[in-house]
Structures are given as C-alpha cells and as structure tokens.
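I had to read the description of the data format several times before I understood it. Each protein is reduced to its one-letter sequence and a matching series of backbone shape codes. The format is easy to grasp once an entry is in front of the reader. For illustration, here is how one protein appears when written out as sequence plus structure tokens:
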Amino acid sequence: MLELSHVYKVFNAGTVNEKIALKDLSLTLNDGDFVTVIGGNGAGKSTMLNAIAGVWRVDAGKVIIDGVDVTAMPEHKRAKFLGRVFQDPMLGTAADMGIEENLALAARRGKSRGLGWGIRKAERAAYKEKLAMLELGLENRMTSKVGLLSGGQRQALTLLMATLQRPKLLLLDEHTAALDPKTAAKVLSLTDRIVTENKLTTVMITHNMKDAIAHGNRLIMMHEGRVILDIAGEDKKKLTVDDLLAKFSVASGSEFANDRAMLS
C-alpha cells in the first residue's frame, strides 16, 4: 500500500544550517498494516509523513501509494489517497462551520460540486449514526460550530472526517500529544476501532513508547532520517519500554534522547 524507496530530503542545502532530514529511507507497508513510529527529536518522523503527503518534494527516491508513483504529484492531488490527523486539534476542521457541514466537506473531498442542497436528509442521518459511534454526544449537536468543541471532541471529529471516504493511507501525526491523558486514551481507543473496522493502512507517529508498543501490528523506530528498528507480530507483542531502549542503543550506537518519550 505504501513504498518509500531510497528517499532523501535535505533542508537548507549548501548552507551552515544544512540538515539531512531523510537519509536513504526505505519502507514498505502492506495493505492493512498499522505501523507506529517513534524516535528522538529530529529523527525524521514528521518529515517522513510530509514526504508521503507531498508537503514538499523529496530530493531523491520514490513515493508509491497503492501502486501509483506519486513522487512528482502535488499535495492537493495526493489528498485523494490520504487521510490525515494533525497534532493540533485546531487543524483539519473549519472552526466557523457546523459539525455536519464539516462532515459534508469531508464526504465530498475529491468530488465535483453542484448547486444542490449542501446536506441531504439521508446524509444527515448517516452523519448522526457515525457521530453516535464516537460516544461523545456530538450526534445531538450537529449544527454546533466546531470551534466550540473541546480538543478531544475536535480530534475525534477530525479522525472521523479523515476516514469517512476510507483513504488508501491514514497518517496520524502525534494526534493525541496535545490532549490530557484521559482524553488521549479515548481518542486512541477510537483510532483502534476505526482502523480495525475499516481495515485501514495506517502510520501513527507517537512520542509515547507505551502507546507505540500497545497499538498497531508493527513498530518502527527512526534515527537520523532512517529506520533503525522494524518490529512486528509476536516480537512486538512481547516488547517492553526497557527492551525498546536497549534495542535502540544497539542499533544506533547511542542513548535514546527524548524526554517526552521517556517520561510518558
């Protein structure tokens, strides 16, 4: 479903601020893989997601989604393949529009627009059913402006919007990092449910080692722009945080340096 082949990305090339963000990065995801990604500060996690999404073009290598080479495809054209939830709950929704209006926009992504009614009766009923699944009471507030929702409610709505059309690939960029622990656990539980029910191929970046171990069927750790650990199946289920730190030290030749991940 996803293939990154020998991808390189350098920022500020040829200057004193040159930063090699991705270094000969290769990664393959099979259909239905739920991969958690962890790594220290500057490891290249978010850079990798931006390379997949087409926020900017890579300097070398290929990005292939479901057999389609999208390396030269601009971001707005790649959007039809992808669903994405950002770290900031304020992103991904239109704050001044109602809940049902945001869902209608998500449902029409990539489709031609006409002059008919914005939201039909059958659509409204479908949205209400999907919102009820979140168990946040949003199905009774469908005309409320999204800007009035809490961070957790908004992130749950964004997750629903990102998966409404069953994307080829779901990208989760530390989507619970800005939430309190209880709300984060709720959103992660919803994530597991939506990913499983829709059999979505998913990449989830997290700073929380316990979450990286507990969720998904595969875990990768990045360091200096490349994958240094790739653990799946039974090996992943048996992992502990201490195991992960020890494996990182052996693979990278250094200690793991990320206070957020260590303290989570």
